[in-house]
Fold these 4 entries.
Entry 1:
Amino acid sequence: ANRLPLAIEGFTQYGKDYPNSPNAGEAQWWIGMAYFNDKKWKEAIDAFDKVIRNYKGHEKAPDAMYQQGLTYQQMGQRPAATKIFQQLVKEYPGSTSAILAQQKLVPASR
């Protein structure tokens, strides 16, 4: 059985109950991942955007930007993905997600 809706519900409730918790940003990130894994691209974009906007200093913020870029790629929206990856590299240089994003920005040389 698909338990993603239940996970989303639980993480959403956690964010409502404990909005100032250090874990609230991570809960929001997991909501995005649940939507991503369920191929609900628009919902994933929105969930990751909440992490990016509401939890800017959180350790999951660069990860949310990276996942948002991957989501845009899944949707076939390369320009939007590129923009997110470039923003990620600029805002969070040296982060693991920025390194991964940089690799996405380099065209495959063959």
Entry 2:
Amino acid sequence: GAADVGADDHRREPVLWWRAHRRPGIVSIRVDRTPNPSAMKYTMGVPVGGPATYTDATGAPSWAAEILVLDGVQSVFATADFVTVTAHADADWDAITQEVITALEGAFDRS
């Protein structure tokens, strides 16, 4: 049952509280789990380009490069109005998500 949730399970919970931190001119970012337990989806509601997958900071847009250098991150996929970040199984998603949101807020706005 719900009381039997293991320690690893809480790391996979979506970090949706970031949605509440809306500021004028800053995109609102929704964070969701994906079918892949090693990936999280960041939906912004503004075009992000793509479809494109980045695995190396060299040649990637600056916002994707900022994400790719984070500890544990393996790839960044961008298309339509969302970005999916894939990381190693033992990655610290709370830390990654905080940095991903910072990078995305700095790169995309509501214009």
Entry 3:
Amino acid sequence: SLEDLTVEKEIAIFTNTSIVIAVEGAAIFNCIHMQEGTTLIELHHRDRHDKQFASITSLRKINHYRLACNTPYGEQEALLKANGLQDFQMELICEFARIESIIKNIVIHE
């Protein structure tokens, strides 16, 4: 987990990697340290439509994919939201086939 690392190590990870796959959140602001042409795959709740990292990735010329994910809560999700749990606080279920497809596409075009 990034929160267990020093700021220097977080920066080093984002600077020296070609693909980052992460759940939306403050740690993704480290994408400002990614190199041009690298890839950020951002996993987010299907109802979240903010694109807070899009301007950073566009300016840095980072390939940015946002993948909408479901939660494991099913019909109980509405009740959880009614009781104050926000969508960005929920666990996500991601389709790994979609992530794999993006990565394969990147590898083919390198």
Entry 4:
Amino acid sequence: TDGSTMTDATPSIETCAEAASATAYPLPQMLDLMQASQLRDELIRLSGHESILLDASGVERMSTPCAQILLAAGHGAKAANKLFKITQASELFRTAIADLGLRHEFDNWME
């Protein structure tokens, strides 16, 4: 044999199973300029995981820098062939994304 094992296969089923069982990281209530650096650091830490799941249900304020950080994280995950999902986005989160003209970008990531 060539030494291949079943684990050499594309992990799409495993990735989906992991995503379904993974706990989403809750985004802070205030995603303002003061939170941007901390958000960036947290997303860098999460980028080491197979998938990045973010819970945006509690977001009540979002600044442009935080939206840019989330956008960069989403593009980085896509480039690394990792799952990037934003779950339960609050109405304010969705409105902020739309107001910034980023709805089309984020639609691929929001449930």
